Amino acid sequence: MLKLRILGRIDNWTSRRIGAFVSQNPFTNVYGAARSIVALSGLLVLILNPADILFVASPATGTGVTCPSIPSLYCVIPDSGVAKIIAIVVLLAVISGILPQVTAPLHWWVAFSYQASATTLEGGDQIAAIITLLLIPVAILDPRWNHWIPVGRTHRGTQYRRATALLFLLLIQVQASVIYLVAGVAKFAEPEWQDGTAMYYWLTHPVFGSPEWQSGIYLLVLSGPVVVTLVTWAVPVLEIVAAGAIFMQQEGKYVVLALIMAMHVMIAVSMGLPAFSLVMIALDLLYLWPVSKPFRFSWRSRSGAQTPSVSSGFTRLDSRAYQP
Predict the structure, then answer these.
(1) Long-range contacts (CB closer than 8 Å, 24 or more residues apart) made by 11-20
(2) Contacts of 24 (CB under 8 A, 6+ apart)
(3) pLDDT digit string, tens, across residues 149-186
(4) Would you say 158 and 143 are in contact if contact means Cβ atoms under 8 Å apart?
(5) What is the rounded average pLDDT of the residues 139-150?
């Protein structure tokens, strides 16, 4: 009898947890915003850099384009200029949110093709390829024709759609936790991070460091041993905390989200890596913001009908709009 009671309680607890999980609506503008931010990152790279910088010719590659076993856009279309234009069109479509069921696979192909074929790469390119791949099932199952459409009962999809999409979003969250854990732990394995001087070297590096107009400020601020040590150690500590945020209550996740996004903004400003920072901010939203809590724009037209107004900012969405 005792075993039956224990098993019954476990079954009830499991049923409640699964029910709460699948009652969430993943088809909101939260995952849509993340898709658009990742696409914006790739768009900036392609628009602001000529092809001969992104695809540097060498004796090994000849044209500067590496062709992997999976067909790359830049290998299917040998003219890298034409391939860039196609990629830009796809990324603009993703940002607009139109037909996520169609643009999601194309977005992954564009992200993968750049990561696999380009010469000039950084960590954000690999992460973008992973995010866009794991978001394909979510987008395909999305019943809306645009991922910016406000959430309503008609946009929730079936229970099986929601459960499948939520599982892939959970995989992204696990991936984000692993990325931050590896990044934080690996830093403490290096002598410069252990002795607290790494940020001084990175921010004052002539190639990878801050712009000239900022370097003087960092030289002044980081000249003190206490300050430079605290700043240096704060980075891996925050990354390790972010890795553990997957187990936190939502209130704690909000705090970590604000801190980790602030860090990536500083990386963009101080180290000239805006594309990387945008990808990481998109990952942070999928990781730490509840996907079933959409961002809402305040809107109202002169006639009283509701029309979107981007300039009004984000506010909480009435919970009735996405209750099961």
Answers:
(1) none
(2) 162, 166, 290, 291, 292
(3) 886 655 555 778 888 999 999 999 999 999 999 999 99
(4) no
(5) 90
Cβ atoms of residues 181 and 240 within 8 Å: yes
* H helix runs in 97-221, sequence order: 100-117, 123-134, 136-141, 159-187, 191-194, 198-203, 212-221
Question: Which among 29, 35, 298 is positioned nearest to 144, based on CA atoms?
Answer: 29
Contact status, residue 196 vs residue 190, Cβ threshold 8 Å: no
> Which pLDDT tens digit goes with each residue over 195-250?
888 877 777 766 666 666 666 666 666 677 787 888 888 889 999 999 999 999 99
Residue 51 CA to residue 284 CA, distance in Å, equals 30
Q: State residue 133's pLDDT score.
A: 96
Q: Which helix H or strand E contains 314, and what residues bound it?
A: strand 314-315
DSSP 233-302: HHHHHHHHHHHHGGGS-HHHHHHHHHHHHHHHHHHHHHHS-HHHHHHHHHHHHHHHS-TTS--EE----T
Give the H/E segment covering residue 315: strand 314-315
Pair 196, 228: CB distance under 8 Å: yes
pLDDT of residue 120: 80
Distance in angstroms (rounded) separating the CA atoms of residues 260 and 239? 8
CB 237 within 8 A of CB 184: yes
